[in-house]
From TrEMBL:
Gene that this sequence comes from: pncA
NCBIfam families: PRK11609.1
E.C. numbers: 3.5.1.19
UniProt family annotation: Belongs to the isochorismatase family.
CDD domains reported in the protein's UniProt record: nicotinamidase
A matching Pfam family: Isochorismatase
GO terms of molecular function: nicotinamidase activity
Domain of life: Bacteria
Name this protein carries in UniProt: nicotinamidase
Pathway where this protein functions: Cofactor biosynthesis; nicotinate biosynthesis; nicotinate from nicotinamide: step 1/1
TM regions (residue ranges): none
Occurrences of domain Isochorismatase-like (ranges): 3-200
Keywords: Hydrolase, Metal-binding, Pyridine nucleotide biosynthesis
Organism: Echinicola arenosa
Length: 205
């Protein structure tokens, strides 16, 4: 059985948001159209406490884009974004949520970042997504959302490691592109790891 997974289509990642992905809003109509093809739809939601250590503002003298050591691992510092209960953390109003089965929140632990919808970046905390998919007989996961080079990529890689047949719908994702080739490199990495990369119009059951 197939599931559509919508990653972090939240106001802070869209134009005008704190960590906006260029043209991120352009994927919303594509995702809404895709939802018509699926009976099982789930989403992830970045849901940070205000004191999250991935925020540059919580480190004296640090700026977004700098890399620090956090708990012994490299951590990119970001602008304050997707703070719990904030407007920036909410899903975009144009995103159809009428058929969603469940939302999985991530990034709640202030001491570790969480890009993937399955685990935090240290693989110590499990969101429960794997178990939920198995409980509902899901074998194939189709991934959309933001951003291709971070949360989408790590969600795809973890879906593969968890044993799901995994598909990235490339016209239903956009990248942060801190470096110009980040989007292309992310697609290559996902494909090389075993994900099938396809366009939304190719999805049919």
């Amino acid at each position: 059985m197939e599931a559509l997974l919508i990653v972090d289509v939240q106001n802070d990642f869209l134009p005008g948001g704190a960590l906006a992905v260029t043209e991120g809003d352009k994927i919303i109509p594509i995702i809404n159209k895709l939802q018509e093809k699926f009976d099982f739809i789930i989403a992830t939601q970045d849901w940070h406490p205000a004191d999250h250590k991935s925020f540059a503002a919580n480190h004296t003298g640090k700026k977004p884009g700098e890399v620090i050591k956090l708990g012994g691992t490299d951590q990119m510092l970001w602008p304050v974004h997707c703070v719990q209960e904030s407007e920036g953390a909410e899903f975009h109003a144009a995103l159809d949520r009428s058929k969603w089965k469940k939302v999985f929140r991530k990034g709640l632990n202030p001491l570790v970042d969480s890009y993937s919808g399955f685990f935090d970046n240290k693989k110590k905390e499990d969101t429960g997504l794997t178990a939920f998919l198995h409980e509902n007989g899901i074998t194939d996961v189709y991934v959309t959302g933001l951003a291709a080079d971070y949360c989408v990529k790590f969600t795809v890689l973890d879906a593969l490691k968890e044993g799901f047949d995994t598909y990235l719908i490339k016209d239903a994702t956009k990248a942060v592109n801190l470096s110009p080739n980040d989007y292309d490199n992310a697609l290559k990495e996902m494909n090389k790891s075993g994900a099938e990369v396809l366009l939304s119009q190719a999805v049919s059951f």
